[in-house]
Amino acid sequence: MVPKKLVTFAIFSIIFAAAIYLLLQLNRAYDEFSHWKSREAVLEKELEDLRTEANDHRQFLDKLRRDPDFQDAVARKELGYGKKDERLYRFPKEIVTD
User: Fold this and answer.
1) 63 domain-assigned
2) Is-contact 32 40, C-beta < 8 A?
3) What is the domain range of residue 44?
4) Has residue 46 been placed in a domain?
């Protein structure tokens, strides 16, 4: 027959090993949780930036659809259009070399 102290020691050893294993798994799970929380914060910031950008584009398009003066200004700036009897000069972009 196995001595009672040996059985008790074996049970405590198994419980101790299981507790250590669970603590290691808990630590790994917390590290993963922390990683995903920080990733979530980054994605929330990106989402907010994209919403702001989409709103800016929406306002630009709305103004472009409804405001003739704005349409004229955009056509002149982006497409290089001019009015009748207006002379436009286009200068080449400067090339910066180091």
Assistant:
1) yes
2) no
3) 4-79
4) yes
Confidence of residue 98 (pLDDT cuts 50, 70, 90): low
Instruction: Identify whether 75 is part of a domain.
Output: yes
Range 65-70 average pLDDT: 93
Using only the alpha carbons of the chain, give its radius of gyration.
35
Neighbours of 40 (CB within 10 A): 10
Kindly state whether residue 70 falls inside one of the protein's structural domains.
yes
In one letter, which amino acid is 70?
A: F
Enumerate the H helices of 1-98 as residue ranges: 4-66, 68-79
Structure tokens given for 7: 């059985």
Q: What tens digit of pLDDT does each residue of 8-18 get?
A: 999 999 999 99
The count of domains in the chain is 1
With vertex at residue 71, the alpha carbon angle to CA 47 and CA 61, rounded to the nearest 5 degrees, is 20
Q: Which amino acid is at 43?
A: L
Q: What is the mean pLDDT of the chain?
A: 90
